[in-house]
Amino acid sequence: MTVRKEKQEERREFLSSSVKLAGAATVGALGVPMLDGLNPSAATEAASSVEIDVTKVPPGGQVTVPWQGKAVMVMNRTPEMLATLEKVQAQGILKDPDLKVPQQPPYAKNIYRARMEQKNMLVLVRICTHMCCIPLYKPKPNSVRPGWLGGFHCPCHGSMYDLSARVIVTSPAPRNMAIPEYHYEDGGKKVVVTKMYPKARLC
Q: Please, is 108 exposed, middle or buried when counting C-beta atoms within 10 Å of its C-beta (0-12, 13-18, 19+)?
């Protein structure tokens, strides 16, 4: 083989290898984003949940934080506030006293609409089920109307809810307010809201 032919062969091999490498790099560059797209990033996972320090919520108080474009509220109900729940139920003024409409996860299907290990803590999506307004927190008795035992009042259209966010019969709102999926961490000191309960509807 002449020197000229050897150089031509070397040149062909070099070009062939370069094309293969370029092709592999392109496939790799496209493949990585595709694989990454199948796995949510740490930022995405962090944005999908919210953590709230419940030790900073005083008895009778509440804190509302933004979460996935919605307002999530954590309320620390006193024993006196919890006692009003049975009174409201006994009055027969609730649209869905037995929680037949799935507006809460199964572990919150009770009079407190909460996890029983911390039944005083109400975790809810603070959105009226009528037209997606933000109801006011009105815990003081008689602050909305005579005989009011405490709860939530939506001044936009008059919907009312008790201290478990259960809708009262005279309200235009059709359903109880939604309870998201959540759990406790750090020995119950921190509540972590993870996602909407799939069967629940906001408005």
A: buried
pTM above 0.70, yes or no: yes
Q: Which residues contact 159 (CB under 8 A, 6 or more apart)?
A: 128, 129, 130, 133, 135, 153, 167, 168, 171, 172, 173
pLDDT tier, 47 (very low <50, low <70, confident <90, very high otherwise): low
Instruction: Tell me: pLDDT of 44 over 90.
Output: no
Residue (of 64, 66, 53, 89) closest to 163 by Cα position: 89
- Name the residue ranges covered by the structural domains of the chain: 3-39, 49-195
Superfamily of domain 49-195: Rieske [2Fe-2S] iron-sulphur domain (2.102.10.10)
